[in-house]
Amino acid sequence: VFNILGYITTIVITRTVGPAVFGIFNLANTITNMTQIFSSAGLGQGLLRFVAFYKGRADIARLKGAIIFATRVSLFLSLLFAVVMFYLSDLIAVRFFSNPDVGLAIKILMISLPFLTLRELWLRSIQSLQIIKYQVYTQKIYQPAAKLISLVILFLLGLKLSGILAASIISALVGFLFAFYYLLKISPIHKKIPAPIYEKKEIINFSLPLSLTQFLDFIIFSINFLMLGYFKTTTDVGIYAVVAKVGGLVVLPLASFNNIFAPMISEFYSRNEMNKLEDLFKTVTKWIFTLSLPVFLIFILFAQPIMGIFGQSFVIGAVALIVFGAGELINAGTGSVGIILMMTGRPKINLLNSIALCVLNIILNYLLIPQYGIIGTAFATGLSIAIVNILRLAEVYYFLRIHPFRLNYLKPCIAGFLSFFLVYLVADKPSTVSTSTMVILSVLYIGLYVVFIFLFKLEKEDEYILKLIYQKLINFKNGISNTIYK
């Protein structure tokens, strides 16, 4: 649902305002997201570990203290950085991007900074309590739905860039309100007993390195927008923003499984149940790769028609989409290695990884963007993503002696490429097909892929996962039916 809403929103924006205005928004949004990392100070990631850790030990006092302390610090920092960036916005826009419209966009988006920071903090707390549905409802349904509805109304009123910015603020406010509501609903922070115990030093020592890690990870991904804006134009930024958004579909399964897997890692590790952790790591990684591979192969088949959905001006980003997607496939294929390092108490290792990759990404962008533009930045990002995850995979094995691979990893590979060649033969020239034909052929590809997967036979853990998914879908359907009835 989140991706359907997200891509509809992007299509509405790109077809209404074009790549240049979309590029201005993405530059301003990138600056806002970078500022959010500093205003959160890594406390969201810190809570993801400590709330789950205290929950596992039934230490309600310290659980409350962690959430309350992090909220106070993040509120103060978000207000401080919002004011600072408001005054620096014009300087940033003119000096780096030679476009004063970017400065105005930054000023407007800074209104949403406190909402974004606290929403992220509270959603991490909800995730740590392992009630994932409230995080999903808020972040994946309510917020993007609010943004899409707001955009449509504002565009109909004739607002373009200002409409996008206003819709972003409305979306952030909706997320903030729902995150606060659900946090109060499922956590004990509003109860007087027991009194909160604040482990301030321990939380800060853990969270601050994560803040720098988050910043460096952000730079690895987002430096492309900033350097494209510096060396090229806002049009290039707008096209690459679509490449990055569509390319993110490859790692959607990784993000989905990480939401559930992260707090479980902390619990298994705290109990020294390494065999369970390794078995879960292998099963989760196989499923992530099984779901990610067909998405990437569809990109190879239909990159031009896919980019054409956002407008003919975006078709030139087709090659960049394939290059970017290749790096994300390696990311998916290595599994939740970064999360494992973090949740087993090794944030400094992640920090070192991010420093090395940040430097590599900046160097590659500096060398490639001036000559190759969008394709150069896609290659720089894809290579950086691949290297950091292979490095993390080696580190997980070195520290924990576990890895995610089994021989049955070959099954999705064979199924994927068999389906690919069959659809390629049917399509004749996949790059020139219409949007409707592309959709039909993509459905055919997925159908063939699923058939081959089942022909190769499922293991017991695969059947278990499928039963869980089926049961979740039934529960979700019943929940929606009850909501409609009420």
Account of the 3D structure:
The chain is 84% helix and 0% strand. The protein is mainly α. Helix 9 (234-247) crosses helix 12 and helix 13 (337-343) crosses helix 14 (347-400). The two termini are 22 Å apart. It contains 17 helices and no strands. The model has no long low-confidence stretch (mean pLDDT 86).
Short description:
The chain has 486 residues and is mainly alpha-helical. It is 84% helix and 0% strand.
Rg from Cα: 22 Å
User: Beta fraction of the residues?
Assistant: under 5%
The stretches of 5 or more residues where confidence is low (pLDDT under 50) are none
Largest sheet: none
Ends: how far apart?
22 Å
- In sequence order, what are the helices and strands, one letter per element? HHHHHHHHHHHHHHHHH
- Quaternary state of this entry equals single chain
So how many helices?
Answer: 17
The helix content, as a percent range, equals over 70%
Pairing-aware structural class of the strands and helices? mainly alpha
